[in-house]
């Protein structure tokens, strides 16, 4: 679990190569849990939602949260590329998410497929 999460951060901008199922799912689960906890703590401390800006301190917290969210989004995007490569699919399959409902289900199926020998290793 910790090695998969460390590998997620080490390969933040690596859009080639592969990522196994555990290397894909553990970082996603950990990021959702950490994100939820951090947002809850910030909202409890400030007393209002993180998107509401009342002073400069709120603005800086909002800016930092948006920057961190962008960095994590970029890491997850590269992780999705590597996971698709591991199941021997092109990263273009990521665009299947644009198809309403069916695309999300199909992409989930692609993410749970087992690893296969492929051209990206």
| Cα-atom radius of gyration | 17 Å
Biggest sheet record: none
Separate helix tally: 4
Number of strands: 0
Distance between the termini: 22 Å
How would you state the average pLDDT, rounded?
A: 89
Category from helices, strands and their pairing: mainly alpha
Low-confidence parts, pLDDT < 50 over ≥5 residues?
A: none
Which bin fits the share of residues in helices? 55-70%
How much beta, percentage-wise? Answer: under 5%
Pfam families: DUF805
Protein name: DUF805 domain-containing protein
Transmembrane segments: 24-47, 59-79, 91-113
Keywords: Membrane, Transmembrane, Transmembrane helix
Could you describe the 3D structure shown?
Keywords: Membrane, Transmembrane, Transmembrane helix. It is built from 4 helices and no strands. The protein has 121 residues and is an all-alpha fold. The longest helix is centred in the middle third of the chain and has 31 residues, at 56-86. The mean pLDDT is 89.
Write the layout of secondary structure elements.
Layout (H helix, E strand, L loop, with lengths): L1 H9 L10 H26 L9 H31 L15 H11 L9
Helix pairs in contact: 1-2, 2-3
Using brief descriptors, characterize the structure shown.
mainly alpha; elongated; 121 residues; 4 helices
Summarize the structure.
This is DUF805 domain-containing protein. The protein has 121 residues and is an all-alpha fold.
């Amino acid at each position: 679990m910790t090695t998969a999460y460390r590998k997620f951060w080490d390969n933040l901008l690596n859009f080639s190569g592969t990522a196994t199922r555990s290397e894909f799912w553990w970082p996603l689960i950990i990021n959702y849990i950490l994100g939820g906890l951090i947002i809850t703590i910030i909202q409890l401390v400030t007393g209002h939602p993180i998107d509401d800006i009342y002073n400069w301190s709120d603005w800086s917290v909002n800016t930092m949260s948006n920057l961190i969210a962008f960095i994590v989004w970029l890491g997850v995007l590269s992780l999705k590329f590597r996971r698709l490569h591991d199941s021997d699919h092109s990263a273009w399959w990521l665009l299947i998410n644009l198809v309403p409902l069916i695309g999300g289900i199909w992409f989930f199926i692609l993410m749970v497929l087992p690893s296969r020998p492929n051209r990206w290793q």
